[in-house]
Amino acid sequence: MATALSPEDVESRLRARFGQDILAFEVQHGHAVATVSTERYRDVCRFLRDEPEFDCTYCDFTGGVDFGPERGFEVVTHLYSLSHHHNVRVKVRLPHEDPTCPTVSDLFPTSNWHERETMEMFGVTFDNHPMPVRLLLAEAFEGHPLRKDFELMSRVVKPWPGAVEGEEEEEEE
C-alpha cells in the first residue's frame, strides 16, 4: 500500500537528488515547499512525477506572485500524488525585469492553462510553451493586471465624487 511522504522525507530526498539546486525548503500548512533554481525547475517537476516514491502525477495549479521590483516574481506549482496522497509545492524565483521560466505543460497538461493565465496576469514568459496566447483578456488589453505596478484605470479616470466618510459638508445657513 502506498504511503504519503512527510515534508521532512520530501526535503531529504530532493536535497539528496538535487543538492544546491534546492535553494530553500519549508513546510506550509503541512505541505512540502521547495524553492528551486530556474535551471532545474523542469527536472525537479519531472522527478516528482516519475519517481515512484513521489508519483506526483497531478498538477493542481501553477500561478505567480509579484513581490515588487526588489524581490521580483515567484512561479508556484502545486503537485499532488493521487496514489500517495501527499503534496509538493515547487517555487521558482524570477527577476522583475524579463521574468522567464521553463514550461512544464508537456509534463503536466493541466499546467498549460495555468501558465497562460500567469503569462497574462503577471507577464511571466514560459519558455517553449506550446500555445502562448491569451486565455482570459481581450487582445487589445494592455498590461498585466496582477502586477503590483498595474495602475487601476477606474481610479485614475473617475475620481471619487462623494465626500470622504465622516467629513460631510456642513450646510450654510
Strand-helix topology:
Blueprint: H1 7-18, E1 22-28, E2 31-36, H2 41-50, E3 58-66, E4 73-80, E5 87-94, E6 100-102, H3 111-122, E7 125-127, H4 153-157
Parallel strand pairs: 2-5, 6-7
Antiparallel strand pairs: 1-2, 3-4, 4-5
Task: Describe the protein.
The chain is an alpha/beta fold and 173 residues long. The protein is 23% helix and 25% strand. It has four helices and seven strands. The strands form two sheets. Strands 1-2-5-4-3 form a five-stranded mixed beta sheet. Strand 1 and strand 2 form a beta hairpin. The protein is elongated, with a radius of gyration of 21 Å. It starts with 6 loop residues before the first helix and ends in a 16-residue tail after the last helix. The model has no long low-confidence stretch (mean pLDDT 91).
End-to-end separation: 84 Å
Shape: elongated
Largest sheet: 5 strands, mixed
SS-based structural class? Answer: alpha/beta
Average pLDDT works out at 91
Outline the low-pLDDT stretches.
none
**Could you tell me the radius of gyration in angstroms?**
21 Å
Distinct helical segment count: 4
- H/E series, N to C? HEEHEEEEHEH
Beta fraction? 25-35%
